[in-house]
Amino acid sequence: MCAYALLRSEQFTESIQYHQQALDLNLDNAGNWHNLALAQECLGNYEDEIASYDLALTLKPDDPQTLTHLGNVLRHGGRFQEAMAARDRALELKPNYTDALYTKAVIFALQGDTNQALVNLREYVLGRDLHPHS
């Protein structure tokens, strides 16, 4: 069973092992670093997850999905400025990226800025209607 299939079937420890084996063969695969980070998140290994996203972004710095996922873990850790910077960069690369718009709204709400949260939530809802697959 491949590493990503293990991740999808919620066999997170096994998925981490397979991703690490794949990375032993090729450290330059941003997708494997990204998927390793996803498995690490599921096990609560947040510092390892951040490190894996950072390595993925070193290899592929213009990936809005990885930037958005990094922003999520930073947000969960209360690192709102860093999370917002990751989200802003994702939106520079893909302006209608609804995942980034939604989580940006969440960050504003957590910081108590309900006006900006509502602005971003509105953009998210409009983006979902205009770009259902973004």
TrEMBL record:
What does UniProt give as the signal peptide span? none
Record key words, sorted: Repeat, TPR repeat
Q: Name one Pfam family in it.
A: TPR_7
TPR repeats sit at 30-63, 64-97
Bilayer-crossing residues are none
Coiled-coil-forming residues are none
Q: Do you know which InterPro entries this protein is assigned to?
A: TPR-like_helical_dom_sf, TPR_rpt, Ycf3/AcsC/BcsC/TPR_MFPF
Q: What Gene3D superfamilies does the record point to?
A: Tetratricopeptide repeat domain
Note the PANTHER family from the entry: CELLULOSE SYNTHASE OPERON PROTEIN C (PTHR44943), TPR REPEAT-CONTAINING PROTEIN MJ0263 (PTHR44943:SF8)
The protein here is known as: Uncharacterized protein
Which organism does this record belong to?
Neosynechococcus sphagnicola sy1
